[in-house]
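We store chain and fold; example below:
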Amino acid sequence: MKLKNVLIVVKDIERSRQFYHDLFGLELILDNDGNMILTEGLVLQEEKYWKEFLGKEIVPENNSSELYFEESDIEGFIKKLERYDPDVKYVNRLMTHSWGQKVIRFYDPDGNLIEVGTPV
């Protein structure tokens, strides 16, 4: 068995597709009307469908999971992020862990936690 995809819930699927394309270079593989598969195994699911499936409310910024990306030019990425979304909500700005890795954490437009770190 292998892990095939990771699904995140979004309010505006087109805005989220554009966000992940513009900042991370993810491309659309398949659009299933409310469910988009992007490269690198990321799936975007419209909130209204997810609520129907679960029968529960969605809790943005629940901090129970994160999407992790690596970027060797993290300072360049931060400049790109700030130009793209000057109002981005940070969990932590650029910091360096004790093992030397630089990381930044922030939320996507729907409150999904993202970490970008330098390769270890």
Notes: The beta strands are 6-10, 28-31, 35-38, 42-46, 66-70, 90-96, 102-107, 113-117. The longest strand covers residues 90-96. The chain has a mean pLDDT of 96.
